[in-house]
Amino acid sequence: MNTISLERRRLGDEPPTRSAAEDMVVFERVQKTYDGRTLVVEDLNLAVRRGEFLTMLGPSGSGKTTTLMMLGGFEQPTSGRILLEGQAVERLPPERRDIGFVFQNYALFPHMTVRENVGFPLRYRGVKGAEAARRIEDALEMVQLGGLGERRPAQLSGGQQQRVALARAMVFNPKLILMDEPLGALDKQLREHMQIEIKQIQQRLGITMVYVTHDQSEALTMSDRIAVFHQGRIQQLSDPVTLYEQPENRFVAGFIGDNNTLACELAGTENGLVVVRMQDGTRLLTTGPAGSPGESMTVSLRPERLGLDTGSRQGAHNRITARVLDKTFLGDRVRLALEAFGDARLVASLPAAEGAAIVPGCTVAMACAAADCRTLTR
Amino acid sequence: MWLPAYATRSERLGRLFVVLFAVAVLVFLIGPLFVVFPLSVSKDPFFTFPIKEYSWRWYADFFENTRWTKSLVNSLIAAVFSTALATLLGTLAALGISRPGFPWRKAVMALMISPMIMPVVIVAVGAYMFFGALGLTDTRTGLVLAHAGLAIPFVVVTVLSALSTYDANLTRAGASLGAGPVSVFFAVTLPLILPGIVSGALLAFAVSFDEVIVALFLTGADQRTLPVQMFSGIRDQINPTIMAAASLLTTVSIALFVLLSLIRRVRRA
Q: Which of A106, A181, B142, B174 has its CA 20 to 30 A from that of B246?
C-alpha cells in the first residue's frame, strides 16, 4: 500500500517511508483553517504518485479546492508539511513551484493572443525566439488548436479556451498539473469529449495530474485514483473500481453512484462472508468489514446489482421478496421502488425488457450476490 | 413614449411628467453655458443680450494679458503634477485595499474618500494652517500636494471599480506560470486596469484644474491659478475676458469628459 491511510495516522503510527522518486507530492498532517476555529482541511495525509491521474472528489466545502490551492501555493497550510519531489514547499511562492494550474474559469489573459498566452510561462523561463515558437506550436498542436494562435481568448469557444489553458499549463513541462473543476462550464457533450482528451494527453505525456471535481462520473472516467473528500477529511482513497465496488463508509457509498443503504445488525460470519440480520429478521450474506455480533451496521447495495430472481445465479447470493411501490421507465432500463425487510425502501434498476411485466403493487422475488452487498461500519 | 401598449392613462401622464422634469433639470444645469459662451464672443464690453456684434477680442485679450496666461500655465503645471501624484498614490492605494484580507478595509476606505465628502473650505483651512507651519504656503509644492489629496479619492474609486471586474485568478495564473508579483503586475494587471487608471487620472486633472478654494488659500501672486484669477477678476472689475476664460475652462472640462466616455466605451467593447 503506497498511501498512508487515515486510520493508521489517527492511531499515531509513523508514516511508512517511501522513496521520493515514486511520490510526486506528499501531504503530511496538513491542516488549514481560515478563521482560526473551523478546520477546512483536517489532518490531511496524501501521497500523489509520479505519473498518476489523481482526482480529489467531494461536495463543495469538503476541502478539496483548498487542498489544491495549498499545493498550488495560493494558500498556506495552517500546519503540516507539503513535499514536492521530496522538498518542502509550504513557504515557496507559486511562481517558484513549477506547477501548471488550470483554473475553473481558465484565467486566460484577455489582452493577449492565444500564442502570447501559451508563450507567457516561457517568457519567464528564458526560452526565446525559435525555441519558444516551436514549443508554443507543439503545445497548440497537442490540444488541436494549431492555426488559432493569433486569436484572442474572447474569440474562442469555451472548449477552445479550455484547450488554451491546458496548453499554457503544459508548455513549460511542469512537474505536475493541477486542475480545478476545469470542465464545469462546458456543456455535457463537450465535457465528456474533453474528459477523454485530457486523459489521453496525460497518459501520452506521462505527466502527473491532480484534478478537482464534484462530478463523480467525471472522476470515475478519468482517474487512476480518487480521493473522496468530505468535511475536510479523505473518506476513501482508491482506484475507481474499488471505490465503486467497495465503498468504505456510508458517505462514499452514497456519494459515488446510486446506492441502497440498509440498516442491519451483525449476526456472525460464515465461510468468509459476513451474515447480517435485517430489521425484519431476514438474514443476508454480505462482504466487507465485520464488527462484533449485535453491532448495528449498514449494508450498501447498488440498484443495478439487485436483479430478478431467475434461480440461475452462481455462488453465494441472497433472495429478497419485495413489494413494488413504483416503476419508472428510463428508456433502456426501468427503475423500481421497492419495499422489503418490513418497511425498508430500496431501489432496483433492471433492463427494460426484464421489467416489462412488473406493475406497481405486485410482489417480486429479487436476488443479489453476497459480493454486491457491502457492509459499512462507519 | 417607451411605454407598453397597455399602459393606462395615468401611467402615460406620469411618464410625461418624468420626461418634462428631466428636461427641466438638464436645462437648469446646462443653461449657464448658453449665457457664458455667447457673452465671451460678444464685442460689447457690457454684459447685454441680445448680442449685437460678435468678436474674438476677449480671447485675444486673454492670451495677450500675462496675468491670464501666467495663471493658465500655473493651472496646467499644478494639474499635471497633482494628477501624476494622485494617480500613482491612488492606484497603489486601490491595489492594496482590493487585496483579500486587507485589514479595516471599510475604515481605510472612509478615510481615503473623506476629501470627496468634506467641505473643501475645511480642507483648505486645514491645509493652510498645516502647510504654513511647514513653509509650504505660497508654493507650487504646497498646491500640488493639496490638490493631489483632493484628487486621490477619484483615482481610488475608479481604479477600485476597474479592479472589481478584474479576475484575481489572472494574478494567480501569472504566478503559477512563473512570473513574480512585480512581473505579473506589469504584464497582466496593469494593462487590464489601465482604462480605470486613465479615467481616474482625467478626473484628477479636472479636480485640480477647476479647483478654486484651496488654491485661494495656498497660492500667492506667483502661483495664482486660472480659477483664482477669475475669482479675483470678478471681485475687482467685471470684464468679458472672464467669460473667455470661463469658456476655455468649460471647453477643457468637456474635452476631459468626452475622453472619459471614449475610454469607457473602449473598455466595454
A: B142
